[in-house]
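Is this the right way to post structure tokens for a design question? Let me know if I should format differently. Anyway, here goes:
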């Protein structure tokens, strides 16, 4: 997922894709980016420059059950937008998260 705090797009992209889905409690940002980048296929570019510094944490990292809910919403967002995923693929994120904690 692209870092969403630094994601910018034209108003017309949002108008074409639709509003944030408020029935997502944790992953509305992920669902919106999947809809914009995968379903709407908007053009994008990467700027190799730090524009935001954030602390780790937040609702999605506040406990095991929130992680389960987050992953359930990610699977749902992918399915709703025609992107294949599976619970096992999401489990591959765990070793990466552990490495981030060690650093």
């Amino acid at each position: 997922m692209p870092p969403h705090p630094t994601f910018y797009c034209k108003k017309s992209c949002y108008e074409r894709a639709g509003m944030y889905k408020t029935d997502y409690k944790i992953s509305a940002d992920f669902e919106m980016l999947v809809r914009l980048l995968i379903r709407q296929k908007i053009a994008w570019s990467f700027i190799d420059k730090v524009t935001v510094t954030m602390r780790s944490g937040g609702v999605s990292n506040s406990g095991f059950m929130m992680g389960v809910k987050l992953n359930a919403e990610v699977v749902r967002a992918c399915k709703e937008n025609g992107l294949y995923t599976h619970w096992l693929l999401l489990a591959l994120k765990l070793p990466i998260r552990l490495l981030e904690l060690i650093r």
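Format looks fine. Someone answered above. Worth noting: The chain has a mean pLDDT of 82. The helical segments are 11-17, 28-39, 64-80, 87-91, 93-102.
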